[in-house]
Amino acid sequence: MSCQCIIHCVFSHLFFLILSISLLFPRLGIEVKKEENLSEWYSQVITKSEMIEYYDVSGCYVLRPWAYSIWEVIQQFFDGEIKKLGVENCYFPMFVSQSALEKEASHIEDFAPEVAWVTHSGKTELAEPIAIRPTSETVMYPTFAKWVQSHRDLPIKLNQWCNVVRWEFKHPQPFLRTREFLWQEGHTAHATEKDAADEVLQILDIYARVYEEFLAVPVVKGKKTEKEKFAGGQYTTTVEAFVSASGRAIQAATSHHLGNNFAKMFEIMFEDPLCPKQKLYAFQNSWGLTTRSIGVLTMIHGDNQGLVLPPRVAKIQVVIIPCGVTASLPENERVALLAKCHEYQKRLVCRGVRASDDFRDNYSPGWKFNHWELKGVPIRVEVGPRDIRRQEFVAVRRDTGEKVVCREDEMEALVIDLLANIQHNLYNRAKKDLQDHMVIADTMEVFQKELDSGKIVQVPFCGEVSCEDWIKKTTARDEEVDTGAPAMGAKGLCIPFEPLRQLAPGAICISGKEPAKFYTLFGRSY
Ligand code: 86X
């Protein structure tokens, strides 16, 4: 055999050896770095953490228990808060007649391509095609009109937890842009403008709390620009989050004041209590928060080891793993070890901590460490025979990787304290990240430079739609510096309620033409 042939032979054997090993042991960890390939990193995190399973309809995904449980925590908190405001839950049908949908003619036009229609039952064509709700204004407001005669019928404050369908054609991404998603949609009708306007902000506050207190995601509160507001309403308020890994902002939730616009279209009116025979139109709001929030959390806190869950939304907050169970370990010590782990788990559950033990004996401790790390469990507790003798255990925090040795008798207090600490640390880390990436610019040059270095930017702005169009067009780039992908133009994200700086008197819009009205936050966005 020639030398070349031997080398070839060795390499081909090596090749098949590696191939068969990799088929036997699929790679468990995240194989790309967040900072190197964000979209591949994201796909791996959401699937390997067991949040998402792919599905054979494009833009639709399975929400597995690991993700759905986050949604349940959000639901529980938000539902409790809106009930304090007198909002009641209900359920309206998911189908909309063509005539009801088209009552809302003005702004429907832009959305029309996204509406999904049912046209057949079996092979038979329906007499009238029926739309699947993309949102429920046109489903609910004809009913509101029936229910309102007098000011005593107001306010109506309804909410529903449901799915909606928007057949988008942009690149879909689990949680962030899906054709079907879960949300809550609140729809309220009030006798006075003031009553409605107050509620818009109360709801926005609850949205900010969902993000900041539960998902540990800092948000910027503000009002949407004329271009970006809900076209059917008077004004839109919003909470915006920021993903530093992509330099892109993301709309986190919106709360709209609709004025009488919809009341006029759907004839939601009542007799003026002060002037009988005079009809008044109801003032309405609508507000929504979606499962996109889970994608935002993933993007912001996830790292190169996988998902990182803030303790308040983690289905499992503490996982307890027995270590050092070898063949040489005496039976009585093995039994004692498992009993101790189980005791820890029970003691934590008694104190309201979502603790779980992992006694599976077909997986090694190392495998389990990786597994639970990938799934983002906030604290891993390791217990070995030596720890038991010393009446200690080791706690490893997911957010920093730090190991803490802890005395057994202080277990509950320490773990509870550590969970609170992790929750705050995640929030503070993300808050600092936002602060470091949200800057001011007063010229187009500085604006462009900041944008291209992955920042979001507050600029003096006149508020005109045409000017916002110009900004978007002007800030778009053919090639992004590092990825080579085209860089989209900047959108108006919001007019922050608390801008970084007050507008100087006589300030000019960033475009250099009109007088500026306010600082507006601009950025590339999802
Ligand atoms: C806007 C407005 C509003 C209640 C919310 O943002 C919160 C909850 N609704 C939703 N919007 C549409 O009105 C719309 C309409 C159609 Cl027909 C569509 F296909 C897509 C839509 N997307 C958003």
Question: What can be said about this structure in brief?
Answer:
One of its GO terms (molecular function) is ATP binding. This protein is α+β, with helices and mostly antiparallel strands and 526 residues long.
Let me know the average pLDDT: 95
- Describe the global form: globular
How large is the share of residues in beta strands?
15-25%
The main β sheet shows up as: 11 strands, mixed
The residue fraction in helices comes out at: 25-40%
* Unreliably modeled segments: none
Ligands bound here?
A: ligand 86X
Strand order of the largest sheet: 3-7-8-14-11-10-9-22-23-21-20
Number of helices: 15
Assembly form of the protein:
single chain
Please tally the β strands and state the result: 23
Span between termini: 60 Å
Radius of gyration: 27 Å
- Structural class call reads alpha+beta
Organism: Eptatretus burgeri (Inshore hagfish)
Enzyme class: ligase
Catalytic activity: tRNA(Pro) + L-proline + ATP = L-prolyl-tRNA(Pro) + AMP + diphosphate
Protein name: proline--tRNA ligase
